[in-house]
Amino acid sequence: MQQTRAVGGALGSADRSSDTAAAPLDEAGFWEALEYRVSHALAGVEECARLGMWCDGFIAHAFELEASPKRIFGQAWVCFGSRQERWTFELLLPDDVERPDAIVWSTLLPAATATCWLTIDREGKHLVVAPADAVHLSA
Q1: Do residues 53 and 128 touch, judged by C-beta distance below 8 A?
Q2: Distances (CA, A) of 129 to 32, 82, 83, 109
Q3: Beta carbons within 10 angstroms of residue 66's beta carbon
Q4: How far apart are CA 42 and CA 54, in angstroms?
Q5: How far apart are CA 123 and CA 125, in angstroms?
Q6: How confident is the model at residue 120 (pLDDT cuts 50, 70, 90)?
Q7: Start-to-end Cα distance in the chain
Q8: How far apart are CA 80 and CA 117, in angstroms?
Q9: What Å distances lie between residue 40 and 58, 71, 94, 100, CA to CA?
Q10: CB–CB of 114/20 below 8 Å?
Q11: What is the dihedral angle through the alpha carbons of 108, 69, 95, 131, rounded to the nearest 10 degrees?
Q12: pTM for the whole thing?
């Protein structure tokens, strides 16, 4: 299985959301902001940038809070230029999350300058978003 760990990218139009790690963020706002963060990260991976990869949204389908690690599963729309594909994704959650309404969404959004939080499996058409793995770089 070929996987790529996204290591960030140059700031630009793909990163339309500001760094909202400290700002209040509801669930709907989180998914929209994550779409732009993922697009920004994809732009920073040479192969993904060459393929014109970007993200056009997330739909959460299931919260798995009894397992380890805790996670949210769903569908992501990954684009290659103007061609869109349906992928799956999982968002890894902190161990202390006990119920969906207790999630502090702003803590799950990687900083615009963070790296190493996104794993891309092109063959399996699957994204893993692991906010706890983020490495924060200097601005």
Answers
A1: no
A2: 14, 23, 22, 9
A3: 7
A4: 6
A5: 6
A6: very high
A7: 33
A8: 21
A9: 15, 22, 23, 27
A10: no
A11: -20
A12: 0.83
